[in-house]
Design brief:
Blueprint lengths: L1 E6 L5 E7 L1 H4 L5 H15 L58 H17 L3 E4 L9 H10 L6 E5 L4 H7 L5 E5 L5 H6 L2 E5 H11 L1
Parallel strand pairs: 1-3, 3-6, 4-5, 4-6
Antiparallel strand pairs: 1-2
Helix pairs in contact: 2-3, 4-5
Length: 207
């Protein structure tokens, strides 16, 4: 089992914590991580693009000129694709881009992502994370104390409005709960901050 230092909000090391290998020492399957990331991004796509085919464009009911004798090519409608204002030949239509991963794959992917972050020394464990008020400045001070820069994912065991709203104004910081953790956020973060309670919950759910 890996031992990781535990810090307080002032940035001082206050102890160590032993991480469960079943969660933080699992196999890192890159193909599975890739599938999990692609699935999340695909499921977030709205797929609302739409253009009209010749049957959906209004007008064009009358033949623009007679079939023969005009010197022009024969035309049946002014809403055919070659006309300005005509329909699109293979028009895009709304579609669902989402696809499914089974539960075992999802859980294995999360374990792999957590393991990768630990192996890359990108995990910081806090003994606690609490704020007395809704102040972004206080949260920035905590990040500075921990010498954290760049994209940061903060994982909480339970919802804490003060922490979530104080971090909400910092573009590079995202907060989430252990129940909502996902592979994309883990792999996209340069630093993952976990509270001790969050570590315990993750080990309880994913072990």
């Amino acid at each position: 089992m890996a031992n990781v230092s535990v810090f307080n909000m002032q940035g001082a090391e206050v102890g160590t914590i032993e991480l469960n290998d079943a969660v933080f020492g699992a196999d890192v399957n890159e193909h599975l991580l890739h599938n999990a990331v692609v699935q999340q991004l695909a499921n977030n796509r709205q797929g609302t693009q739409k253009a009209k085919t010749r049957s959906e464009v209004s007008g064009g009911g009358k033949k623009p000129w007679r079939q023969k004798g005009t010197g022009h090519a024969r035309q049946g409608s002014t809403r055919a694709p070659q006309w300005t204002g005509g329909g699109i030949v293979f028009a895009p239509v709304p579609r669902d881009y989402s696809f499914k991963l089974n539960k075992k794959e999802k859980r294995a992917a999360v374990r792999g992502a957590l393991t990768d972050r630990v192996q890359q020394n990108k995990v910081i464990v806090l003994d606690e994370l609490t704020l007395a008020d809704y102040k972004t400045k206080d949260f920035v001070n905590i990040l500075n104390n921990l010498k954290v820069t760049g994209k940061t994912l903060v994982v909480l065991a339970d919802k804490d409005d003060r922490v979530i709203r104080s971090a909400g104004n910092i573009p590079a910081v995202k907060t989430t709960l252990t129940s909502q953790i996902n592979v994309y956020d883990l792999m996209n973060a340069q630093t993952v901050i976990l509270t001790k309670d969050a570590v315990a919950k993750l080990e309880e759910v994913y072990a």
